[in-house]
Amino acid sequence: MTTLLLGIGSWDPEPWRERFQSALPGWKVVLPGEIFDRRAVRYGAAWKQPEGTFADLPLLDAIFSLGAGVDHLFKDRRLPEGVPVVRVVDPDLTTRMSEYVVMHCLMALRRVRVYEGFQRDRQWIDLRDQPQASDIRVGLLGMGVLGQDAAMKLRTMGFKVAGWSRRPKAVDGVEMHHGSDGLDAVVATSDILVAMMPLTADTAGILEAKLFARMPKAEAIGGPVLINVGRGGLQNEPDILAALETGKLGAAVLDVFQTEPLPADSPLWTHPKVTVTPHNSAISSPPAIAAYVAQQIRTHMAGGDLVNIVDPAHGY
């Protein structure tokens, strides 16, 4: 019986098994540690899989990430060479991410955290110098499918949007930059900076003190705002806290962290200028993602090509 191996290390695997079993009738869906014929495994699907989950599978055709990122797969030192790794590009996940980014940009624009403080203190204070969205510049670091969709929706709300990518890329209606000089240009002109890039050797720790120092004062929204929906490895958390204390940052919205779950003793939990969310900006919905992966598998088994294959050299 043709088999799909689910390597899931940090979620409850059973809802995923149920959805894949429904999406691939007649297949066997197995988990690491169970007894199964390793020669029957044609495809794998993973999120933070145990080390070596996909080793010693002689007929493995592809491995699918169950989330937008793939860095968790490449951390596996026993990941088989030559087997394509496929990332998820699904409208459900993309829409969820854009909702999160637009929501927090609007909250920064309308000074929601400030008004929450006024409410707690029972203060009737009206900040009259309220900017419009068109007064605020949003920089998106990472202009893949998720970044482009967020850019389109931010523009619809009226924000000025610039984007940065590692290599040259054209996006309608967005001022695009690339490379190290382009990164400096976007950072220096972003009142709100949104990190959406993958975690690679080049981007690890990129959100640090020197970068924050290059951001504008953004006085209209109480200081520049950092939003990280990419990966926790992108950010230097002590530098974020220091920048908040000195005013280099006015606020930070963090959905990802260097250690997850975020340790209970982290000062990020209680900092008045930090919003913490539990890596749920774009949750992977089992029904939507299983359907996406199953369709790719059916197409591939019928002789078609896989789409959204990751370049191992670049990590995305």
In short:
This protein is an alpha/beta fold and 316 residues long. Helices cover 30% and strands 16% of the residues.
Query: What global shape is seen?
Result: elongated
- What CATH architecture of the largest domain would you give? 3-Layer(aba) Sandwich
Q: What summary fits the major beta sheet?
A: 7 strands, parallel
Listing every helix as H and every strand as E from the N terminus to the C terminus, the arrangement reads EHEEEHEHHEHEEHEHEHEEH
Q: Largest beta sheet: what is the strand line-up?
A: 8-7-6-9-10-11-12
What is the helix fraction of residues, given as a range?
A: 25-40%
Measured by DSSP, the beta-strand proportion falls in 15-25%
Low-confidence spans:
none
Quote the CATH topology of the largest domain: Rossmann fold
